[in-house]
Amino acid sequence: MTSPFDAVMLSYDEPLADKLHARLQRVLGVKVRRLHGVQGMRRAYRLAAEVVDAEQFLLADGDFVIATEFALKAVEPLDEGVSMRVWRARNPLNGLVYGYGGLKLIRRSALRELGDAVDVLAALPGRTQFAQDIAGTTRINQSPYHAWKAGFRECAMLKRGSEYGMEEQEAAERIAAWMAGGDGEFARFALSGAREGVAFAAEAARVPAAFDQLNDPAWLQARFAAGHGEQVIAG
User: Residue 60: helix, strand or coil by DSSP?
Assistant: First the structure.
């Protein structure tokens, strides 16, 4: 199958990343390039722009489970002035469906001009378009640590204030859903992460630079280990 778009998966340490990469290639029907273990989120995104040939390319995280019904041939190019389109993803633990962890169509040229933001891709130049279609599931609960990290980072950023311009009420509703718990493997770790993320945001509000730690894997693992011990790696 030929496509006007390239595709990239960015993975770091997700246990299921190999399987999800294979699934992504199978469903899309095209070669999906892979960047794995790159230190620094901004650096990883910028490197993604250098491994593709097309100006617009699909970008998936290492925990993204693409829906089998997603049709690459139906994807329309980005409009002028739009740097990124985000498809929604299902959260398997709390039932939320929004852009968190969703598939993206992004401009290579925009990534090369990436600015600074805690939620890294919020610093793209141009507009972000949010699609209503659901492209898959964000498999955040691959281990206790990954479930905790997802709840911690997302709720800390929502509590801080969405850099995508989300209304405060909507952010509060999403925090409430994360903190209500949920069902599924390692759900209690996502709940702990959500609670601790909200508390962290209150602390970091006095030292805004502290929010940069949300993008530091070593800091996140140390914070998790301090509260949850040996379950950093194992279930």
Answer: strand
Give dist(CA 231, CA 14) in Å, integer: 15
Q: Is the pTM of this model over 0.85?
A: yes
Q: Measured between alpha carbons, how far is 21 from 10 in angstroms, rounded to an integer?
A: 9
pLDDT at 181: 86
Q: Which residue has the tokens 């279609």?
A: 133
Give the type of residue at 139. Answer: R
Q: What gap in Å lies between CA 30 and CA 92, rounded to an integer? A: 26
Classify strands 6-11 and 33-36 as parallel, antiparallel or unpaired.
parallel
Q: How far apart are CA 131 and CA 99, in angstroms?
A: 8
* Gap between the Cα atoms of 146 and 141, Å rounded: 6
- Alpha-carbon distance of 25 to 45, in angstroms, equals 20
Q: What percent of the chain has pLDDT over 70?
A: 97
* Sequence letter at residue 118: V
Residue 50 pLDDT: 96
Helix (H, G, I), strand (E, B) or coil at 221: helix
Show the tokens assigned to 122: 């919020």
| Residue 55 identity (one-letter amino acid) | E
Q: Residue 6: enclosing H or E segment and its boundaries? A: strand 6-11
| Encoded amino acid at 182, one letter | G
